[in-house]
Write a structure and sequence with these properties.
Order of helices and strands: HHHEHEHEHEHEHHHHHEE
CATH class of the largest domain: Alpha Beta
Radius of gyration: 19 Å
Number of helices: 12
Strand order of the largest sheet: 3-2-1-4-5-7-6
CATH architecture of the largest domain: 3-Layer(aba) Sandwich
Helix content: 40-55%
Shape: globular
Strand content: 15-25%
Mean pLDDT: 90
CATH superfamily of the largest domain: Vaccinia Virus protein VP39
CATH topology of the largest domain: Rossmann fold
Number of strands: 7
Structural class: alpha/beta
Low-confidence stretches: 285-290
Largest sheet: 7 strands, mixed
Length: 296
């Protein structure tokens, strides 16, 4: 299975249909230090409202650099990480070798969240985590339905989904598609104007307040500003959702919303933590889901 995933992934990148997320995370990997790891741990503890994951299981869907898989393992969880991008899998494996070499409580695989049979085969988890991933699959609502099969009774689902800005989101879809379609040596033609658009006002404000580059270096969730910009500008495929759509989608599946952190109508991701009711069961036809749900 992993070989077919790798082949398809490479074809999508070569055809200008997918951003090379793994290359971006590979460049981020050398920046990971104790401070960033602790930031990632604190993010999980805050959003999931926990102090430890001892005795719990954690599924990281789209592990990227592997930072949050590492954070969950350090908090005591038994971890399964998987990613569609082979380079992301390599990054996650490298982090494991650095911090938990030969650890039997952390497994890493090359898989797709759109593979419903695979998700059913790996069972249930106390925590299912997928930050900024499901909207990059090319089949967002199907991916959102598929992960339902992995959340245990009373388990928590922590996801982050790109915010629907209407016309602005269509603009960003076009920018992202242009970026992945260009040869690498010409991508600066897209990146530089986007840097000015995304960071120009913030940089000016920081200088006016006599705190140059403070926001740039502050970071969130242990991330790096430059890598976040590249990830945002290039992130394709790209779909978006409104908070009410996501809430309704999981409410219909027996989840309660425990945490919500929005990007206040701007570009970026809305973060959600849902808890599955002990009496709910995964939808039998979850793999069939496509298109946005209708709340009313």
């Amino acid at each position: 299975m992993s070989n077919s995933v790798t082949k398809t992934h490479q074809q999508e990148i070569s055809g200008g249909d997918r951003f090379d997320f793994g290359e971006n995370w590979k460049n981020f990997l050398p920046l990971i230090d104790e401070g960033r790891i602790q930031q990632a741990e604190n993010s999980l503890k805050k959003m999931l409202e926990i102090d430890t994951m001892e005795g719990k299981s954690f599924l990281d869907i789209g592990s990227g650099s592997g930072l949050f898989s590492l954070a969950a393992r350090r908090l005591g969880a038994k971890v399964l990480s998987f990613d569609y991008d082979p380079k992301c899998v390599a990054c996650t494996k490298q982090l494991k070798r650095m911090y938990f070499d030969n650890d039997n409580s952390w497994d890493i695989e090359t898989r797709s969240v759109l593979d419903y049979d695979y998700l059913c085969s790996i069972g249930k988890f106390d925590f299912v985590y997928s930050w900024g991933v499901l909207h990059h699959t090319g089949a967002m609502w199907k991916a959102m339905a598929n992960v339902d099969s992995n959340v245990a009774a009373d388990g928590k689902l922590f996801i982050a989904m790109c915010n629907d800005q209407g016309r602005a989101s269509k603009f960003w879809w076009t920018i992202k598609k242009i970026y992945v379609s260009l040869p690498e040596y010409l991508r600066w033609l897209v990146t530089i104007p986007c840097y000015i658009r995304l960071w120009g006002p913030t940089m000016i404000r920081d200088f006016v307040l006599l705190r140059p580059f403070k926001t740039w270096f502050a970071g969130e969730r242990g991330m790096a500003a430059h890598r976040d910009v590249i990830d945002w500008v290039g992130g394709f495929p790209f779909e978006v959702s409104k908070p009410e759509e996501v809430f309704y989608f999981y409410k219909q599946r027996g989840y309660e919303l425990e945490q919500l952190k929005t990007c206040a109508g701007s570009h970026g991701c809305n973060e959600y933590v849902f808890k599955r009711s002990a009496n709910s069961v995964p939808t039998a036809n979850g793999v069939q889901e496509s298109g946005a749900p209708s709340p009313g």
